[in-house]
Design brief:
Shape: globular
Order of helices and strands: HEHEEEEHEEEEHHEEEEE
Radius of gyration: 18 Å
Distance between the termini: 39 Å
CATH topology of the largest domain: BirA Bifunctional Protein, domain 2
Number of domains: 2
Largest sheet: 7 strands, mixed
Strand order of the largest sheet: 1-2-5-9-8-7-6
CATH superfamily of the largest domain: Bira Bifunctional Protein, Domain 2
Low-confidence stretches: none
Structural class: alpha+beta
Mean pLDDT: 92
CATH architecture of the largest domain: 2-Layer Sandwich
Strand content: 25-35%
Oligomer: single chain
Length: about 270
Protein backbone atom coordinates (compact mmCIF):
# COMPACT_ATOMS: atom_id res chain seq x y z
CA UNK A 1 0.00 0.00 0.00
CA UNK A 2 1.44 3.33 -1.12
CA UNK A 3 0.29 6.53 0.62
CA UNK A 4 2.38 9.39 -0.80
CA UNK A 5 -0.03 12.22 0.08
CA UNK A 6 -0.33 10.97 3.65
CA UNK A 7 3.43 10.53 4.08
CA UNK A 8 3.90 14.20 3.26
CA UNK A 9 1.63 15.21 6.16
CA UNK A 10 2.79 12.88 8.95
CA UNK A 11 5.93 13.45 11.02
CA UNK A 12 6.56 9.72 10.60
CA UNK A 13 4.40 7.25 8.70
CA UNK A 14 4.75 3.49 9.05
CA UNK A 15 2.58 1.21 6.89
CA UNK A 16 2.03 -2.36 8.11
CA UNK A 17 0.79 -5.19 5.87
CA UNK A 18 -1.18 -6.53 8.82
CA UNK A 19 -1.58 -5.59 12.47
CA UNK A 20 -3.58 -6.75 15.46
CA UNK A 21 -4.41 -3.22 16.61
CA UNK A 22 -2.71 -0.08 15.37
CA UNK A 23 -3.46 1.58 18.71
CA UNK A 24 -1.87 -1.22 20.72
CA UNK A 25 1.14 -1.29 18.40
CA UNK A 26 1.71 2.47 18.42
CA UNK A 27 1.28 2.76 22.20
CA UNK A 28 3.90 0.02 22.61
CA UNK A 29 6.35 1.56 20.14
CA UNK A 30 6.01 5.07 21.55
CA UNK A 31 6.45 3.83 25.13
CA UNK A 32 9.54 1.63 24.80
CA UNK A 33 13.22 2.61 24.89
CA UNK A 34 13.05 3.83 21.28
CA UNK A 35 10.02 5.98 21.97
CA UNK A 36 11.88 9.20 21.19
CA UNK A 37 12.03 8.03 17.57
CA UNK A 38 8.25 8.41 17.45
CA UNK A 39 7.72 12.18 17.50
CA UNK A 40 4.53 14.14 17.83
CA UNK A 41 2.15 13.34 14.93
CA UNK A 42 3.67 9.97 14.07
CA UNK A 43 1.23 7.66 12.27
CA UNK A 44 0.82 3.88 12.04
CA UNK A 45 -1.58 2.51 9.41
CA UNK A 46 -2.71 -0.80 7.96
CA UNK A 47 -5.29 -2.11 5.53
CA UNK A 48 -5.63 -5.35 7.52
CA UNK A 49 -6.33 -4.98 11.24
CA UNK A 50 -7.12 -8.33 12.85
CA UNK A 51 -7.85 -7.37 16.47
CA UNK A 52 -9.32 -3.87 16.33
CA UNK A 53 -10.99 -2.36 19.36
CA UNK A 54 -13.77 0.18 19.56
CA UNK A 55 -15.13 2.30 22.36
CA UNK A 56 -16.55 0.64 25.50
CA UNK A 57 -14.66 -2.58 24.80
CA UNK A 58 -16.32 -3.36 21.48
CA UNK A 59 -14.63 -5.27 18.65
CA UNK A 60 -14.00 -3.33 15.43
CA UNK A 61 -14.68 -5.64 12.48
CA UNK A 62 -12.36 -4.82 9.59
CA UNK A 63 -12.27 -7.06 6.46
CA UNK A 64 -8.76 -7.10 4.97
CA UNK A 65 -8.21 -4.69 2.11
CA UNK A 66 -11.60 -3.00 2.49
CA UNK A 67 -10.91 -0.72 5.43
CA UNK A 68 -8.20 1.53 6.77
CA UNK A 69 -7.01 1.43 10.38
CA UNK A 70 -4.82 4.30 11.52
CA UNK A 71 -3.36 5.60 14.77
CA UNK A 72 -1.81 9.01 15.38
CA UNK A 73 0.53 9.81 18.25
CA UNK A 74 0.09 13.20 19.92
CA UNK A 75 2.63 14.56 22.39
CA UNK A 76 0.84 17.85 23.11
CA UNK A 77 2.64 20.88 24.48
CA UNK A 78 1.50 24.48 24.73
CA UNK A 79 3.49 27.22 22.91
CA UNK A 80 5.91 27.77 25.82
CA UNK A 81 6.47 24.03 26.24
CA UNK A 82 4.06 23.49 29.13
CA UNK A 83 2.05 20.26 29.24
CA UNK A 84 -1.65 20.35 28.48
CA UNK A 85 -3.92 19.99 31.52
CA UNK A 86 -5.41 16.51 31.67
CA UNK A 87 -8.98 17.83 31.76
CA UNK A 88 -8.45 19.15 28.21
CA UNK A 89 -7.47 15.73 26.85
CA UNK A 90 -11.15 14.96 26.33
CA UNK A 91 -11.01 17.30 23.35
CA UNK A 92 -8.44 15.25 21.42
CA UNK A 93 -10.84 12.46 20.34
CA UNK A 94 -13.43 15.12 19.51
CA UNK A 95 -10.86 16.92 17.35
CA UNK A 96 -10.16 13.59 15.63
CA UNK A 97 -13.88 13.14 15.00
CA UNK A 98 -14.14 16.62 13.48
CA UNK A 99 -11.11 15.89 11.29
CA UNK A 100 -12.48 12.57 10.03
CA UNK A 101 -15.86 14.14 9.28
CA UNK A 102 -14.13 16.86 7.29
CA UNK A 103 -12.03 14.26 5.43
CA UNK A 104 -14.95 12.00 4.46
CA UNK A 105 -17.37 14.75 3.35
CA UNK A 106 -15.61 15.70 0.08
CA UNK A 107 -15.29 12.03 -0.88
CA UNK A 108 -19.10 11.59 -0.90
CA UNK A 109 -20.34 15.05 -1.91
CA UNK A 110 -23.92 13.92 -2.60
CA UNK A 111 -24.44 12.82 1.01
CA UNK A 112 -24.65 14.26 4.50
CA UNK A 113 -21.60 13.53 6.65
CA UNK A 114 -22.02 14.31 10.34
CA UNK A 115 -20.39 13.51 13.67
CA UNK A 116 -22.31 11.68 16.38
CA UNK A 117 -20.85 12.46 19.80
CA UNK A 118 -18.30 11.56 20.85
CA UNK A 119 -16.61 10.32 17.67
CA UNK A 120 -18.71 8.22 15.30
CA UNK A 121 -18.63 9.61 11.77
CA UNK A 122 -21.83 8.92 9.86
CA UNK A 123 -22.93 9.17 6.25
CA UNK A 124 -26.69 9.80 6.13
CA UNK A 125 -26.95 8.49 9.68
CA UNK A 126 -24.93 5.29 9.10
CA UNK A 127 -21.52 4.76 10.70
CA UNK A 128 -18.51 4.84 8.38
CA UNK A 129 -15.79 5.53 10.95
CA UNK A 130 -15.16 5.14 14.66
CA UNK A 131 -12.38 6.50 16.82
CA UNK A 132 -10.68 5.44 20.04
CA UNK A 133 -8.24 7.47 22.16
CA UNK A 134 -5.76 5.88 24.55
CA UNK A 135 -3.35 7.59 26.95
CA UNK A 136 0.26 6.51 27.05
CA UNK A 137 1.77 5.53 30.41
CA UNK A 138 2.49 8.73 32.31
CA UNK A 139 -0.46 10.53 30.79
CA UNK A 140 1.50 13.10 28.74
CA UNK A 141 0.75 11.66 25.30
CA UNK A 142 -2.24 10.11 23.58
CA UNK A 143 -2.82 7.81 20.63
CA UNK A 144 -5.86 8.52 18.47
CA UNK A 145 -7.03 5.42 16.64
CA UNK A 146 -9.53 5.43 13.79
CA UNK A 147 -11.12 2.84 11.56
CA UNK A 148 -12.62 3.84 8.22
CA UNK A 149 -14.81 1.63 6.04
CA UNK A 150 -13.59 2.14 2.48
CA UNK A 151 -15.00 -0.47 0.11
CA UNK A 152 -17.03 -2.93 2.22
CA UNK A 153 -20.01 -4.28 0.28
CA UNK A 154 -23.45 -3.98 1.84
CA UNK A 155 -23.68 -7.74 2.46
CA UNK A 156 -20.40 -7.68 4.40
CA UNK A 157 -21.13 -4.77 6.73
CA UNK A 158 -20.77 -5.70 10.42
CA UNK A 159 -24.10 -4.13 11.49
CA UNK A 160 -27.23 -2.72 9.80
CA UNK A 161 -26.23 0.75 11.06
CA UNK A 162 -22.87 0.72 9.24
CA UNK A 163 -21.87 1.84 5.77
CA UNK A 164 -18.75 2.33 3.64
CA UNK A 165 -17.53 5.09 1.39
CA UNK A 166 -17.94 2.87 -1.69
CA UNK A 167 -21.67 2.52 -1.01
CA UNK A 168 -22.21 6.28 -1.21
CA UNK A 169 -21.29 7.45 -4.71
CA UNK A 170 -17.62 8.15 -3.97
CA UNK A 171 -15.51 10.30 -6.25
CA UNK A 172 -12.54 7.93 -5.84
CA UNK A 173 -11.90 4.20 -5.34
CA UNK A 174 -8.93 1.89 -4.77
CA UNK A 175 -5.56 2.98 -3.43
CA UNK A 176 -6.20 6.59 -4.35
CA UNK A 177 -9.26 6.59 -2.09
CA UNK A 178 -7.27 5.30 0.88
CA UNK A 179 -4.50 7.85 0.41
CA UNK A 180 -6.86 10.79 -0.13
CA UNK A 181 -8.96 9.82 2.92
CA UNK A 182 -5.95 9.44 5.21
CA UNK A 183 -4.21 12.57 3.93
CA UNK A 184 -7.40 14.58 4.34
CA UNK A 185 -7.82 13.31 7.87
CA UNK A 186 -4.22 14.02 8.86
CA UNK A 187 -4.25 17.47 7.28
CA UNK A 188 -7.39 18.53 9.11
CA UNK A 189 -6.31 16.85 12.34
CA UNK A 190 -2.96 18.62 12.24
CA UNK A 191 -4.55 22.00 11.63
CA UNK A 192 -7.12 21.65 14.43
CA UNK A 193 -4.53 20.22 16.82
CA UNK A 194 -2.08 23.06 16.14
CA UNK A 195 -4.75 25.72 16.64
CA UNK A 196 -5.97 24.07 19.82
CA UNK A 197 -2.47 24.18 21.29
CA UNK A 198 -1.71 27.66 19.95
CA UNK A 199 -4.70 29.02 21.85
CA UNK A 200 -3.72 27.35 25.12
CA UNK A 201 -5.97 24.29 24.67
CA UNK A 202 -9.01 26.55 24.77
CA UNK A 203 -11.77 24.98 22.64
CA UNK A 204 -13.64 28.24 22.03
CA UNK A 205 -10.85 30.63 21.08
CA UNK A 206 -9.16 27.96 18.95
CA UNK A 207 -12.36 27.47 16.95
CA UNK A 208 -12.57 23.76 17.78
CA UNK A 209 -15.79 24.09 19.78
CA UNK A 210 -17.43 26.03 16.96
CA UNK A 211 -16.47 23.39 14.38
CA UNK A 212 -17.87 20.71 16.65
CA UNK A 213 -21.18 22.52 17.01
CA UNK A 214 -21.38 22.86 13.23
CA UNK A 215 -20.73 19.19 12.53
CA UNK A 216 -22.23 17.35 15.52
CA UNK A 217 -25.65 15.86 14.83
CA UNK A 218 -26.09 14.95 18.50
CA UNK A 219 -26.47 18.54 19.70
CA UNK A 220 -30.17 19.38 19.72
CA UNK A 221 -31.25 15.74 19.39
CA UNK A 222 -33.37 13.66 21.71
CA UNK A 223 -30.98 10.99 22.97
CA UNK A 224 -30.73 7.87 25.05
CA UNK A 225 -27.31 7.42 26.67
CA UNK A 226 -26.25 4.00 27.95
CA UNK A 227 -23.75 4.89 30.67
CA UNK A 228 -20.61 2.81 31.27
CA UNK A 229 -21.83 1.78 34.73
CA UNK A 230 -25.03 0.34 33.34
CA UNK A 231 -27.40 3.25 33.90
CA UNK A 232 -29.46 5.03 31.28
CA UNK A 233 -30.10 8.70 30.61
CA UNK A 234 -32.84 10.04 28.35
CA UNK A 235 -33.16 13.68 27.39
CA UNK A 236 -32.07 16.40 24.99
CA UNK A 237 -28.41 16.96 24.13
CA UNK A 238 -28.00 20.71 24.53
CA UNK A 239 -24.26 21.23 24.04
CA UNK A 240 -20.66 20.34 24.84
CA UNK A 241 -18.92 21.66 27.98
CA UNK A 242 -15.33 22.93 28.34
CA UNK A 243 -14.04 19.40 28.96
CA UNK A 244 -15.71 17.95 25.88
CA UNK A 245 -18.52 16.28 27.82
CA UNK A 246 -22.02 16.05 26.38
CA UNK A 247 -24.57 18.16 28.27
CA UNK A 248 -27.95 16.41 28.42
CA UNK A 249 -31.14 17.94 29.83
CA UNK A 250 -32.99 15.04 31.42
CA UNK A 251 -36.55 14.46 30.28
CA UNK A 252 -37.59 13.29 33.73
CA UNK A 253 -36.74 16.38 35.78
CA UNK A 254 -35.06 18.96 33.53
CA UNK A 255 -31.67 18.71 35.24
CA UNK A 256 -28.59 19.07 33.05
CA UNK A 257 -26.10 16.22 33.35
CA UNK A 258 -22.59 16.20 31.85
CA UNK A 259 -21.74 12.86 30.22
CA UNK A 260 -18.05 11.99 29.79
CA UNK A 261 -18.60 8.59 28.13
CA UNK A 262 -21.52 6.53 26.97
CA UNK A 263 -23.28 4.86 24.06
CA UNK A 264 -25.56 7.48 22.48
CA UNK A 265 -28.67 6.68 20.45
CA UNK A 266 -30.43 9.46 18.52
CA UNK A 267 -34.04 8.68 19.26
CA UNK A 268 -35.26 10.23 16.03
CA UNK A 269 -33.47 7.42 14.18
CA UNK A 270 -35.26 4.66 15.98
Amino acid sequence: MQLPLSAAVAARLEILDECGSTNTELVARASDEDGENWPDFSVLVTGSQTDGRGRLGRVWVAPPGQTLAMSVLLRPRLPAGEPVEIDRYGWFPLIAGIAMTAAVAPLVPLHSVRLKWPNDVQIDGLKVSGLLAELLPGGHAVVLGAGLNLTIAEADLPTPTATSIALNDPILLGAELADRALAGYLTELGRLYSEFLRFGADPESSGVAGRLRDLCSTIGSQVRVQLPGGGELVGTAIGIDDSGRLAVRKSSDGRVVAVAAGDVTHLRYE
